[in-house]
Specification:
Distance between the termini: 39 Å
Radius of gyration: 17 Å
Strand content: under 5%
Largest sheet: none
Number of domains: 1
Helix content: over 70%
Shape: globular
């Protein structure tokens, strides 16, 4: 169960304590539980959605989004902000892009990107609540965290050393592919056509963003993985709100 606790500690703000420093193999196996962490997020959001029934719609959507951000501790939004700054400020140069990602300061492009992504998430949540379409609250966090597993499975990690390298080097690849397949089938079984639309939308966005990472950096970083998660969650919510 330790890999699950590692995944929960890394992906959430839940009060998880580990019994010492995990081994590299345990870090790698924790990636297998990323979709399960997404399931937990989705169930919590769906429960909150039910509790908020009857609340004014805009407040309802705002509370859901706030809890969603708090559950992850804003970790992936930070990665999105760093990636946005680096992509513009890097001027197509790999080393400059990687250097900007290390800078803890956020520039105007980071702020604009965060505002737009959160605005789109909020509006999509508002539409889903109005249409009583709660499946998106489960599909978006599950698919977003599964995408991180998919990224580590098929994309080189470009920063040597550190947590990300341990995750990439010690991920059981065959099991990882099986987990992704089970997750995809589960999305369709649970949500039907909505699940298929969410998977198709996420798949298109995933391969486009992965292409951008490979072209600029030759692979991924922790920041770009966080950006991928946030953008896929947004894309899934918007796609489901439009159908």
């Amino acid at each position: 169960m330790l890999p699950l606790w590692i995944a929960l500690q890394f992906l959430s703000s839940l009060p998880i304590s580990l019994p010492g420093m995990p081994k590299p193999e345990e870090l790698g196996r924790s990636l297998l539980f990323y979709p399960l962490v997404g399931v937990l997020f989705g169930l919590l959001l769906m429960a909150l959605n039910s509790l908020l029934a009857g609340t004014p719609l805009m407040l309802h959507a705002a509370l859901l989004l706030t809890v969603w951000v708090l559950l992850s501790g804003g970790l992936h939004l930070d990665g999105l902000a760093d990636s946005a700054d680096a992509w513009l400020g890097g001027f197509g140069d790999r080393e400059r892009t990687l250097s900007i990602m290390k800078d803890p300061r956020s520039g105007p492009i980071a702020v604009i990107t965060l505002v737009l992504v959160l605005l789109l998430k909020f509006c999509a949540l508002l539409a889903l609540i109005e249409n009583h379409h709660s499946a998106g609250l489960l599909l978006a966090p599950v698919i977003g965290r599964s995408a991180m597993l998919g990224l580590f499975l098929g994309t080189p990690y470009v920063r040597a050393g550190g947590l990300g390298q341990a995750l990439a080097d010690h991920l059981p690849r065959t099991l990882g592919k099986q987990v992704l397949l089970i997750t995809a089938v589960g999305c369709v079984l649970v949500a039907g056509m909505s699940g298929a639309i969410a998977l198709l939308t996420a798949g298109v966005c995933f391969f486009w963003l992965r292409h951008l990472m490979l072209r600029r950096l030759g692979g991924s970083t922790g920041d770009t993985a966080g950006a991928l998660l946030e953008l896929l969650e947004m894309a899934v919510l918007v796609a489901l709100a439009l159908v």
